[in-house]
Design a protein that fits this description.
Length: about 450
């Protein structure tokens, strides 16, 4: 498999090469400087993705895109151009990533290429109609996992390695990516599987109650403490304590957790003596915990104790090829649970699901499939118009829309997402690979400037 870059600019070749180095998927890099050379490659080799300028010495504009699609139908294309291309009338062209050379950098370009590669994998697994007959599902620690993409396979390899050890594990990933399921799989795969795994969301209860839940209390320790309570670390025995949303723990709870990790003991609230514990800690967070350390909201010493074995769980938008199999898997399971039969999904609807951003990740996808199972008549086919409105309208390309308007719409959606997910504009800017001042300039240019800079 190859990633082909078509351009006569050596600096652009270097940019694409650096972006390629950031990508885990195995694909060789080929640089050519004319459309004719590119078509020779496309006619003789399987190409995973084409990155192209749309002003070449021997062709320009839509002709380039059309001839690439004719040479290898369905190959995903990323346009990396010095000038804004006109795409009016680009019917049937699988081109969704458009980047300006003036603003492109390896990080943003690698994301565009990964997205294109995911769509390429997706296209090979979608027929005109897909029957929910059950995909190949990996059984891992007693749990089902869909992992046909390199990032998720890496996660499972790390989970398997961590399972054989007793070191703390820190799972980092967005809400809905399946961190608790991975924690349970890790426990089920470990020598501790005969003991219990207990789960506590550190952001779901007040500080005093969280201390009692984790470390226990003695009778009379506080109002309402009518009897002794052992706490989850004692209840887990030699098993696993899974601490979800660990970043929400208060400073006092963080100090007590540090003692558990350092001395393997807990002191119940109101007790005079500490008790030895043997449970292993697996923690999870929906935002980078090191950023919380830098902001002074999380103890550095606790972070480095928890992050002995960090595992980043990728969001679903970085696992486009997994979406197809996840949809099939959820259809099969949920139809059985709801006693519905014969439901299929059209290829067009499946493409639309795979192209959605999925801010709620796998959990949101499962809920959407569940809704479809309950609302679409049995023995029929799920069509695009039956998908949720937010999915149907996400990233819709209006063929008569000026390119600048289209790019602005995509840019606004991305910036809004980062501003929602990060605590400050400086953090959001870093996640976008630009400076804070650069973000302010974009906010003003896009008409998004409102609140004062954070």
């Amino acid at each position: 498999m190859y990633i082909v870059h078509v351009d006569d600019d050596p600096a652009a070749h270097e940019l694409v090469r650096r972006a390629r180095e950031r990508i885990a998927q195995r694909a060789d890099f080929i640089a050519v400087d004319t459309l004719r050379s590119a078509l020779c490659v496309l006619s003789s080799a399987r190409v995973a993705c084409v990155v192209t300028e749309i002003h070449l010495r021997d062709a320009s504009g839509l002709e380039i895109l059309q001839r690439i699609q004719v040479a290898q139908p369905g190959v995903p294309v990323v346009v990396l151009s010095a000038t804004a291309p006109a795409i009016h009338g680009a019917h049937g062209l699988d081109v969704r990533e458009w980047l300006s050379k003036q603003e492109a950098e390896p990080g943003a370009l690698s994301v565009a290429i990964v997205t294109a590669l995911g769509r390429g994998l997706l296209a090979t697994s979608i027929d005109a109609d897909v029957v929910a007959d059950g995909p190949e599902v990996a059984r891992f620690g007693g749990f089902d996992f869909i992992a046909c993409t390199a990032p998720m396979r890496r996660v499972l390899r790390l989970i398997e390695s961590a399972a054989e050890s007793d070191v703390p594990v820190l799972l980092e990933g967005e809400t809905g990516t399946g961190k608790e399921i991975l924690a349970r799989a890790l426990h089920a795969r470990s020598p501790r599987r005969a003991a219990a795994i207990v789960v506590q969301n550190c952001g779901a209860v007040a500080e005093q109650l969280l201390e009692s839940e984790l470390f226990g209390h003695v009778r009379g320790a506080f109002t309402g403490a009518e009897r002794d309570r052992p706490g989850l670390f004692i209840e887990a025995g030699a098993g696993t304590v899974f601490l979800d949303e660990i970043g929400e723990a208060s400073p006092n709870v963080q100090a007590r957790l540090l003692r558990v990790l350092q001395h393997r003991e807990v002191k119940p609230v109101g007790a005079d003596r500490a008790q030895r514990v043997a449970a292993r800690i697996v923690a999870a967070t929906n935002r980078p915990l090191i950023d919380e350390v830098r902001a002074g909201r999380f103890r550095a010493d606790l972070y480095y104790r928890l992050a002995v074995f960090p595992i980043h769980v990728p969001p679903l938008r970085q696992r486009a090829a997994d979406v197809v199999r996840l949809v099939r898997h959820f259809l099969t399971r949920l139809m059985a649970e709801e006693r519905r039969e014969g439901l299929t999904i059209s290829g067009e609807a499946l493409h639309m699901l795979a192209g959605y951003y999925w801010p709620g990740n796998v959990r949101e996808l499962e809920h959407e499939v569940h809704r479809l199972v309950l609302t679409v008549a049995p023995n029929t086919r799920i069509l695009p118009e039956q998908l949720a409105t937010r999915i149907r309208h996400h990233g819709a390309v209006l063929l008569d829309e000026p390119l600048d308007d289209m790019l602005a719409r995509v840019e606004i959606a991305l910036i809004r997402d980062r501003l929602d997910r990060f605590p400050t504009k400086a953090d959001a800017a870093r996640s976008l690979g630009i400076t804070r001042e650069g973000l302010y300039a974009k906010l003003r240019r896009l008409g998004m400037w409102g609140s004062s800079p954070a």
